[in-house]
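@here heads up, posting the sequence + SMILES for the magnesium ion run so it's all in one place. Ping me if the SMILES looks off, I pulled it from an old spreadsheet.
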Amino acid sequence: MTQNVLEVIGVTKAFGGLKALDDINLSVKRGTVHSIVGPNGSGKTTLFNVITGFSQPTAGKVIFKAIDLKGKKPSSITAMGMARTFQNVLLFRQMTALENVMVARHTKLRAKPYNAVIRPKWVMEEEELNRARCTELLELCGLGARAKELARNLPYGEQKRLEIARALATEPELLLLDEPAAGTPAGEIDGLLELIQKIKALGITVLLIEHKMDMVMAVSDTVSVLSFGHKIAEGTPAEVSSNPEVIEAYLGRKWLDAET
Ligand SMILES: Nc1ncnc2c1ncn2[C@@H]1O[C@H](COP(=O)(O)OP(=O)(O)OP(=O)(O)O)[C@@H](O)[C@H]1O
Ligand SMILES: [Mg+2]
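bot reply: prediction finished. Complex structure tokens:
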């Protein structure tokens, strides 16, 4: 088993004349929380899209568990053990919280679509086990009491956690979270931080995009900083937060924004 679960090698992504990512290299160590920070438009979500197969790089490659992901579809990459959440929540809004998580686990089940009608005992048993596992995941994400609530009725912060539960249902080795704290009330940030720590304790590697710097500093083993599609710094939270170029490109501006 290699030490790095993910290697991004020389990745460039161009949209017309704009290089949203310019020769990005990134190594994500297994079992760590690795954060990607940077100003709006610096290429963070584009990087997630390239890693997860939602878009193909213009140049460079992505290696997951020593396998080149070139040409692979998002669904096959998920099946290999990579899951993500989206910057803008994507849930089945008319389904309950529990149903959203159960649907995500269908690839882990033996039952076929016709087993919705033809239901031998093993199908019923498998469904019960699936329900129990998904209920556990809702509990892990602090949504145990919300199982029967329609996704669209949940407050935004809970919808973001439901997305995490759904991503966990695919049993990932690498979980990518795109701004999980966005729209989360201040009082729920600590809970989210604890959730990420629990996910790490389960042995799942976490790649995290987040603007809430207190949370990034508290939870990350490694932080990479993007600016205009370039990686301008990388290191421990302490190293990165004292780097003059990072303060100039990102943190200084954030602090100014916070004052205005
Ligand atoms: N599909 C696309 N077509 C054209 N330009 C795009 C596309 N997706 C992203 N971009 C551009 O690429 C750049 C990087 O965008 P990206 O969404 O990756 O930034 P980000 O770091 O995630 O920003 P934020 O913090 O606001 O979420 C931006 O200039 C954006 O406008
Ligand atoms: Mg983004």
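MO: Residues 15, 18, 20, 38, 40-46, 87 surround adenosine-5'-triphosphate (ligand 1) (CB under 6 Å).
MO: One more: The two ends are 48 Å apart (CA to CA).
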